[in-house]
């Protein structure tokens, strides 16, 4: 599912959520600039992968060589920061997921998290800009087919 994405023509970021039904786990994928970040639980900690390479928890905070993103331990989980690209924070732990965009992105995002503009009556907007009446149909509208995301084994 698309949690949040930059809905401007630049498409600076997209935050995806994949739920593993068998293990009842969430897997977060953040595509930002040319960087692909995966965050998912394994045993009792959050695994961090950048472009397919696992970053050990002991190596956090991690700063991408291009300086666009930083990943660090925060509270009980992991937080990704990329303010220059519109993402203030993507926080993930075993129970919580938080996506915060920078002020200048407000009203320019879409996905399950909405437009981030403070307006709450028109939150159930689908990818084709229609307004749905229920949370369930809204959530279903932001589901990507399995072919759109990498398989968990890749």
From TrEMBL:
Entry-linked Pfam families? VWD
Q: What is this protein called?
A: Vitellogenin
Tell me the ranges covered by the VWFD domain, including all copies. 1-150
Which gene does this sequence derive from?
A: VIT
Q: Which GO terms describe its biological process?
A: cellular response to estrogen stimulus; response to estradiol
The domain of life for this entry's organism is Eukaryota
| UniProt keyword terms in alphabetical order | Glycoprotein, Storage protein
Recite the lineage of the species. Answer: Eukaryota, Metazoa, Chordata, Craniata, Vertebrata
Quote the InterPro entries the UniProt record gives. Answer: Vitellogenin/Apolipophorin (IPR050733), VWF_type-D (IPR001846)
Which organism does this sequence originate in? Micropterus salmoides
Q: Name one GO molecular function term.
A: nutrient reservoir activity
Q: Which PROSITE patterns match?
A: VWFD (PS51233)
Report if keyword Glycoprotein is assigned: yes
């Amino acid at each position: 599912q698309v949690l949040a994405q930059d809905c401007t023509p630049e498409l600076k970021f997209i935050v995806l959520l994949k739920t593993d039904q068998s293990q009842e786990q969430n897997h977060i994928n953040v595509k930002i600039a040319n960087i692909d970040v995966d965050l998912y639980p394994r045993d009792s900690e959050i695994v961090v992968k950048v472009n397919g390479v696992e970053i050990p928890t002991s190596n956090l905070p991690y700063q991408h060589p291009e300086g666009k993103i930083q990943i660090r331990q925060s509270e009980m989980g992991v937080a990704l920061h990329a303010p220059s690209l519109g993402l203030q924070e993507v926080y993930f732990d075993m129970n919580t997921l938080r996506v915060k965009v920078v002020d200048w992105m407000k009203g320019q995002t879409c996905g399950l998290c909405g437009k981030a503009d403070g307006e709450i009556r028109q939150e159930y907007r689908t990818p084709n800009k229609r307004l749905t009446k229920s949370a369930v149909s809204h959530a279903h509208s932001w589901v990507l087919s399995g072919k759109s995301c990498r398989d968990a084994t890749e």
